[in-house]
From TrEMBL:
Sections of the chain in a coiled coil: 58-165
Gene Ontology cellular component list: centrosome; cytoplasm
Keyword Disulfide bond attached: no
Keywords recorded for this protein, A-Z: Coiled coil
Species assigned in the record: Origma solitaria
Single GO BP term: cytoskeleton-dependent intracellular transport
The keyword Coiled coil appears for this protein: yes
Full protein name: DAPLE protein
One of the record's GO molecular function terms: microtubule binding
Length: 166
């Protein structure tokens, strides 16, 4: 029973390590998204509401990642306590079942978070495309404004010349 428990503990530790790696990858992706958002906000004149929305999404993802990391650390502490406490085989089995359920819940949370990050990436790409379109529109409007200004200046000059002739 102890050998079985030790193997089970090792399996759970391996699962936790895999979850930690997934969490770290999620955190890295989230940090990268944050960096991309900063770069995007530096290069465009997006409205403040769009910036705060993207920032809020990024903060929400970061907060969830930190919560999952905290939950994972708690599970690791519990496993260590199980090792140290020499619980009976039955108690250990019950605790392992509980930990396995928590690990499954964490896996689901991580999967949801990864899906959310993918949606945020798509949203960021959409915002970047919108930003590029807005920049093009702005440039076109500037050309139109310059043309209108030149026409206005020409008309003023023509009117002044007509006025001088009168």
């Amino acid at each position: 029973d102890r050998d079985t428990d030790k193997k089970r503990i090792e399996e759970l530790l391996e699962e936790n390590m895999v979850l930690e790696i997934a969490q770290k990858q999620s955190m890295n992706e989230s940090a990268h998204l944050g960096w991309e958002l900063e770069q995007l906000s530096k290069s465009t004149d997006l409205a403040d509401s769009e910036k705060s929305f993207v920032f809020e999404l990024n903060e929400c993802a970061s907060s969830r990642i930190l919560k999952l990391e905290k939950d994972n650390q708690s599970l690791q502490n519990t496993i260590q306590e199980l090792r140290d406490a020499s619980l009976t085989s039955r108690e250990s089995s019950l605790k392992f079942v509980e930990l396995e359920k928590e690990n499954q819940q964490l896996s689901k949370k991580i999967e949801k978070l990864q899906n959310q990050i993918e949606r945020e990436k798509q949203s960021n790409q959409d915002l970047e495309t919108l930003s590029e379109e807005l920049i093009k529109d702005k440039e076109q409007l500037q050309v139109v404004m310059e043309t209108l200004k030149a026409d206005k200046d020409r008309q003023i000059k023509d009117l002044e010349q007509e006025n001088d002739h009168l």
